[in-house]
Each structure stands twice: as C-alpha cells, then as structure tokens.
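Please decode residue identities from the backbone states below.
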C-alpha cells in the first residue's frame, strides 16, 4: 500500500505564495510509475481535483479555478511531486491532498496538508 506524505502547507496572506511537496516514505515505491495529481477540499465542501501530471511530467491539466496561478511539477529522480501556488486567494483555503495512480490520480491519497489564505 503506497503511502503519500504532503508537506509545505501553512498560513499565508492573500496574494502570497506557497509550494507543496508530496513524496513517499516507503523505499522501493517509484512514483514515476504513475500519473499524479493534487486535490483540494475547502471547508465544508467535497474534495475536488485541481491538477494532474503524467508520468514524464510533460502533460499537465488544471481546473479553471487554479489555471494560470498554480504549477504542478514532478522530479522523478527525487520521487517527489510539487504544487507551486501563486497569487493565492481566500477561496484557495482548504486541505490539499496528493494523489497517485488510478484514472484520476486517486488510486492512493495522502493525509493532506492545510493551506489557509487570509486577508
């Protein structure tokens, strides 16, 4: 069972930036074998997919809510997935989950990291 671990969340003012990371603590699991993505769950709402990236890191997708502000990337040599978030808005507040494998990068999900954007 693949275990994913997110980091980099925190509190930031609107307009600020954060960079999330996701990796696995389990040696032998190569994240490069799977497409990956990021999910976000705002307070009181359902979790939704906001970005995906293919195994090579050459094809990406973004939801309209983050397009142009967030950048997903991966470093397969470091077995790590990233989400760079710029121009953060209040509505970006939520728990961010890293996902791997599966049709929508939801075969495995991490425990999540909290991002809070305030005025």
């Amino acid at each position: 069972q693949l275990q994913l671990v997110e980091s980099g969340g925190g509190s930031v003012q609107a307009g600020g930036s954060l960079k999330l990371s996701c990796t696995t603590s389990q040696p032998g699991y190569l994240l490069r074998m799977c497409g990956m993505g990021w999910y976000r769950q705002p307070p009181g709402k359902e979790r939704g997919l906001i970005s995906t990236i293919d195994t090579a890191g050459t094809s990406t997708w973004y939801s309209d809510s983050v397009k142009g502000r967030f950048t997903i990337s991966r470093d397969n040599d470091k077995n790590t997935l990233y989400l760079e978030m710029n121009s953060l808005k209040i509505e970006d507040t939520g728990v961010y989950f890293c996902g791997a494998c599966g049709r929508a990068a939801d075969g495995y999900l991490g425990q999540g990291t909290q991002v809070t954007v305030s005025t």
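Observation: The radius of gyration is 13 Å.
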